[in-house]
Amino acid sequence: MGVSLGFHIIFAAVGIAMPLMMALAESQWLKTKRPEYLRLAKMWAKGTSIFFAVGAVSGTVLSFELGLLFPEFMKKSGALIGLPFALEGFAFFTEAIFLGIYLYGWEKVSPRAHVAAGYVVALSGLLSAVFVTLVNAWMNAPVGFSFHDGKFTDIDPARVFFSPFAFIEVVHSISAAYLAVAAIVAGIHAWALTREKTAFHLAALKISLWILIPAALIQPLSGHFAGQNVAKYQPLKFAVMEGVEKTESHVPFEIGPVQIPGLLSWLATGDTQAEVKGRDAFPQEDWPVPFVRYCFVFMVACGLLLVAVALWSVVALRKDRFSESLLKALIVVSPLGLLALEAGW
Hints:
Blueprint: H1 2-32, H2 35-69, H3 71-104, H4 111-140, E1 146-148, E2 151-153, H5 166-195, H6 199-233, H7 235-242, E3 248-249, E4 253-255, E5 258-260, H8 263-269, E6 275-276, H9 291-319, H10 324-333, H11 336-344
């Protein structure tokens, strides 16, 4: 299932971000009548449809795996997480219907209706991801039931949408998807611009940066609050992620050989003097594998590099001038968003 998830999330991320980019491109065409925007919208629509089709198949595989590999979990939790999964199905079919209108309706519906269909595809793709992420958030902090004699009782499905992890995990995960796809698209067109300066690639780069910049800047803030949730509800995971071996107060944050006193305590709780539980507070047989920490550190490093390039890109967009150095930086960091997404999951 890990392999299936790692494969599917690539297509899920594209299904979230690419429809928004194609709709923005068509909006720019309607506004400016510049042909490069129309070409972009049609090109990105084709890519969206291919990734959507593969994502639908790989997502179906995951739904079967949930039942086949975790039957007892699904038997007990199905009454709770069935609702967001059902709503995800509605969002998925809405996306499919309006993607069909978008792909085949260029000459059959009005321009305004056509671009509106594109935005419906973007919105329904977003909602589909939100509902699935809410299930994952619930799994991190289950609510909405009582547990007696091995059975779930007093079930309240509505509370699944309001688990302690729900809001911040949705923000962090969805913005990560936008960032990952926008970074790849920006890198592709930055590479093209280093070879030939064309209006087509410049327009594509600008649209991708409109998405990359806010998504990259949201990541550190949402990640901070997500980390605080982990520290509160899953202290062992937090200890492994941050490499905390012993339970202590006023825990420093280490950046290589440099230690900043109390910073990790503050990051975990908002109090520099607070106690942070280490791995020693938990039975050794419950310790996650060290690979968890490596993935976390790699994810954070990728995110910080993307934030730096995003800030650089803000200046370039304001001046409407992209230096060779920035274009090369965008090429280098282009895969980092997707790698961080995989490492984070």
